[in-house]
Structure formats: C-alpha cells, structure tokens
Amino acid sequence: MAGSPPSRGTPEIPFFEFSITPFLKPATGKANNFQSVSTSNPLKIIACPFPSRGSILLLAMCRFASAAPEPSGKSPAPGDPKPAAGAVATPAYLKSSSPERYGNFGDSSAISGDTLVIGAPEEGAASGKPGAGAAYVFVRSGESWIQQARITAPDAGTYDFFGSSVAISGNTMVVGAPDQDGIDAEPYVDLAYGAAYVYVRSGTVWTLQATLRASNADQSDQFGYSVAISGDDIVIGAPYADGSGAREKPPFNATDFAGGAAYVFSRVNGNQWMQRANLKVAHDGSYSAIGLSVAISGNTLVSQGHVFVRTEIGWLFHASLKSPTAAYDDRFGAAVAISGETIVVGAPAEEFKEAEFSKATGAVHVFERNGFEWVETSLIKAFNAEQGDDFGNSVAISGDTIVVGAENEWGSGQGLNPVSDEEANYSGAAYAFTRQNRLWTLQSYLKASNTGADDYMGASVAIDGDTIVLGAPGESGSGKGFNPAVNESREGAGAVYLFAVSKLRQLVLSPEITVLGFKGDPIRNNATVNIGRQLVGKRSNSKELWIQNTGNIPLKLGGIKNAGKHSPEYRIEYYKYISEYHSSLAPGDKIQIELTIRPKAKGLRRTTLTIKSNDSDEPAFKIKLKGTGVKP
Question: What is the pLDDT of residues 570-595, one digit of tens each?
Fold first, then answer.
C-alpha cells in the first residue's frame, strides 16, 4: 500500500508484547460492543469491559484445504461457439526475466504507484536450490512495465519459499520466507522458523535494509507467511506460532497450540527496525486463528478478521469481525485488505444453498467503521459461483474498488467480461466491484488473455489507483518480459496480468439463448430448418439441435412446445428430460434436442418449435421445421 509514514504525534513506544483472550461480539449495531474505545488520534483506551468467551468465533484453515470442484460431466457438443475474448480491454501479460518450471511467478503480488513486486516462491532449481524463491520488481514505463530487479535472500536455502508473500510502500519492500530455517539451521533441515526481508530503493537499486525474525521464534511458526506494510510499519504473520517459544511472555497453555501471531515492526532512526508487538487471540487450538492474512492502514491493522489499533501504550485488540452467514469451516479471514475505514474479508469456502443443495462457493464480507464499531455493509458473491471456486481466496481494495480472486474458477473465457463457462479446470478468475452509496456492485469479470487450465489466476490480487494486478502462478508460458509471445512450454512458470480500472466496463448480467443447428452453427429466431426427405410411414434417423446459454447468468427454460399443422408427425426426443432435469442452464452449458419425422403423406410437412426461457430479448425462440414426405 502506498503512502507516507503516519503521523502519530506520540513519543517512541518501547517493545510491547500483547495477548488477549476474550473477543468482542459480532458487529450487531449495538454501541456497547465497542464503546470503551475512543477513536481520537492518537487512540486512547479508557477501559475494556470485554464480553465473555462465549462469543469467540473460530477462524481457520489454510487455502489448500478447500474441496476440489466436482467434474462438470459435460461432453463437448458439435459447433461449440468460442467464448468472447474481451475486446474492450485485453490485459497486459507480464513474465519474469527467468521463467522457471514450477517457479510459481505470481503466487504473491503487490503494487505501490508505478512499482510492482511479484513473488516466485518456488524458483531456485536452476541455481541448485529448489524452492529458495525470488521476488521481481517492475516499474512502469509509459504503457509498458520493465523489470528493475530480481531479488533473492542473502541466506537463501532450499525450500525457504522466499517470495511467498510480498508488500511494498513507496521505496520500501518486504518479502516473506515462511520456511526459512533460522540463523543456526543445518543444511536440509526443515525447521520453518520463517523470516522477512526488508529492502529499500535508492535510485534504481534495491538493497537489503533488515532481516526480521520473531523475538520468540520457534520451529514451524512460518513467520513471513503473510506480510503487509504502511509507511514505516510492517506486519508479519506467523500462522502456526503456538506460544511455546522460550522467550514467550506470558506463557501460553495447550489451548493456544498453533494459535498463530501477528508481529508489528516499526522503522526507527531511519534505517533500523524494532519489534513493537506480538499480537495474539485465543481459540481452541484446532487451526491458526491469526497470521494467515494481514493488512495495515495507518493506525489500524487486521489479521484474519481480528482488528487491532495503535494506542499510546502500543497495539491493542479492538474487535473480532464476524458475519451471521459465516461458519467455522468457511475459512473466514483467509484473505484480508484494508483501506481507511473499510475492511474486506475473504471466506473462500463459505457455503450457500442452491435448490436443495449447498455449495462451498466462497464469499467476501465488507465492513466499515461506524464510530466505535465495525459494521458489515455488504456480502459479495460471484455471479457465476460454483462449488470449490475459492472466491475470496485473495482480496484487495483501493478507494472505491475491490478486487476478489477465485483461483479455482473453471472459465475458459479471455479478457474483460467474457462468457462464463466451465471448460478450463482451475484456470482462475478475478472480479472487480465498485462502491456507490456504501453498496458494492459487480463491475467486471476478469480473465487472462491466454486462459489455460491449472493457471490459478487470482491466487494473488493487488490494486493501487488505476492498476489491477492478478497473479497466475500456474501459467505455463516460457516468454519473458512485457507481452511476450504466448506458448505452453514451461509448466507452472507463472505470469501476471494487468488491467486498468479506467478501462473496465460494467458487466451486464443476463441469460442468452443460442440454438445451434444440425451442423453446429447458430440459427436465428424464426428461422426455417429443413429436416430433409423421408419415406412416408417410416421414422427418420434423428437429427440434433443444441440449446446453449451464452449469457452470464442461468438461463431458465420454460418448456418446448411443438405446434403446427403436422406436429404429430414430429417427435421431439428428451422433451420431458429437458423440462424436468434441465430447467436451468448455467452460463456456457448446453442441452441436446433430438428430432425425427414420420410423414403420413407425401409433400411438405411443417411444424413450429417454441422454446420459452427467461431471455428478455427472445423469451419465445421459434424454429420452423419442414420436411418432405416421399413415396416408398
């Protein structure tokens, strides 16, 4: 996040270690939830009469725990129309200078003004240290982006995963290496204490300013799993810290196992970094409660839906954000973002009921500060939500624009606002939402310019001003630099796609009926289709029409009517099947109609099929059928 260091108006604060057991209740609009906190600047705690432990919400689970989507089960039909390619705004396509097989460039991303930083945590095989990781810095040059630096850790080790998390503010960048094994680790010993590295830029040169480690570092803490920066403050998540480190004060009991922590560091004397706080929350120990995600803006930070504020005596717990729709296993808080008085929380496994079934499609919750409270103002879902899409696995906000990633989405479309389908497994997608009068509405559906299966676009998202950044760590091109030639020759090398907010266009949500003829070509409404010549009294071989939804929301079919002078001579196969089991077609889906004729007499035999649907332009799509009876 870009910005200058916040003006705090207070003397330097000594090291402060803090833990809190009870939570505030959900944001229900009752002022007494937060009335003990004054929001003057700087904040000052008056008193904290927190409610009982009964209001604790358990947050948990890393992003890899989501259920995989069920296969679509669809077989291709002849004449499949290709999805729209997003002609209004094709995204820029950005690759590293050294794409490496399974390097996962784009697994993390951040932007500040005209500087972009991208993590490639699995790189290193080419230098003999697989998984050591790297981070790439790009700067804007006119309409292009030029690589300024490739950065690796000074103490890079095998499978440190340097670049798993990145953040940037002006000329300061922080890179997380959650599996770094500590200062005294032996080679090939996986301790995963974790570390974070701070770099500063002078001119065009980036140099290491500090290596940050937890004051109570312990094995498997994964310090650096998430990072965030605002001016001279850095927040680092350690989601598997269990409080058992030798220097931990006060000691934590078994119920704090793997409770996680968020560490705050501040820059002092211009070039030194001091740990200010070790923030924790209580939970039952099943999974991490804090540290999987972090974000900071001025005097407010959020980690997995828990909000902390800076006061005269240090960072203190402020609120636990909760939603009435969120459940324990929804992964509420897997991703967070903050901008001023607005917090965005992703819940990529949240379930919603559709007909008699529930789907874990994911959701995003938006909270706004209202006096002393944080109140949920919007619940955001994908218009094309499907089981296991992981909508909300990544989130970002800048002003009145929110970007949400869904790394497991299956659409094969390309560019801006293409047709949504289910034809490219785990290709990934992102969605842009805009705010007006405190309400968030869908602006655009974003896909890569070279969409492919297993690209996982949306694994990371970032936004600043007019630039949206979308990471696709599974993309398989071997090209280098800005808008290189597209190929599929380096599996898992990764890529980044850039959209301009100013070029986004409103996605108009509507179903669209398309009927494909016998040769797979679209036919017009009220068109005449010739079923051919057939012996009188003999049933013809079947011919197939296809009904496809080429819109972006479900097409609801109201039945197919066969009416005309010779309608009894025509048989419409699967009519009952269609009406009972396929009354709704998801975007991109299609169903087959089989037609046969058994003429009773020679000459032309005519009827009309009428397909009723919720397509507002063509609510009654008509097909005029004709066939010719001939003597045996």
Answer: 998 754 344 444 578 888 788 888 99
* Angstrom distance (rounded) from CA 321 to CA 59: 11
pLDDT for 226 beyond 70: yes
- Specify whether the CB–CB gap between 489 and 476 falls below 8 A: yes
CA 473/CA 416 separation, integer angstroms: 20
* 8 A C-beta contact, residue 222 and residue 159: no
User: Residue 490 and residue 430: Cα distance in Å, rounded?
Assistant: 23
Question: Alpha-carbon distance 583 to 591, whole Å?
Answer: 10
Any bridge partners for residue 157, and if so which? Answer: none
SS3 31: helix
Give the tens place of pLDDT for each residue, 17-42: 333 323 222 333 323 222 222 222 33
pLDDT at position 174 over 80:
yes
Share of residues in the chain with pLDDT > 70 (%): 79
Instruction: Find out whether 32 and 47 touch, Cβ atoms under 8 Å.
Output: no
Q: Quick one: pLDDT band at residue 54, thresholds 50, 70, 90?
A: very low
> pLDDT tens digits, residue range 70-119?
333 333 333 333 333 222 357 999 999 999 999 999 999 999 999 999 99
Token couple for 369: 């500060």
CA distance 529 to 533: 13
Longest dimension (CA), the chain: 103
Count Cβ neighbours within 10 Å for each residue of 82-121 and write b for 16 or more, e otherwise: ebbebeebbbbbbbbebbbebbbbbbbbbbbeebbbbbbb
SS3 content of the chain, % helix, strand, coil (to 5): 5, 45, 50
In angstroms, the CA 534 to CA 121 distance is 66
Integer Cα distance of 106 and 110 in angstroms: 10
Distance, in Å, from the CA atom of 384 to the CA atom of 555, rounded to the nearest integer, reads 12
SS3 362: strand
* CB-based contact 367:376 (threshold 8 Å): yes
**In 298-352, where does DSSP find H-type helix?**
none
* Type of residue found at 592: Q
Contacts of 448 (CB under 8 A, 6+ apart): 91, 93, 414, 427, 428, 455, 457, 470, 472, 475, 495, 497
What is the C-alpha separation between 239 and 61, in angstroms, rounded? 10
pLDDT class of 282 with cuts at 50, 70, 90: confident
3-state secondary structure 450-499: CCCCCCCECCEEEEECCEEEEEECCCCCCCCEECCCCCCCCCCCEEEEEE
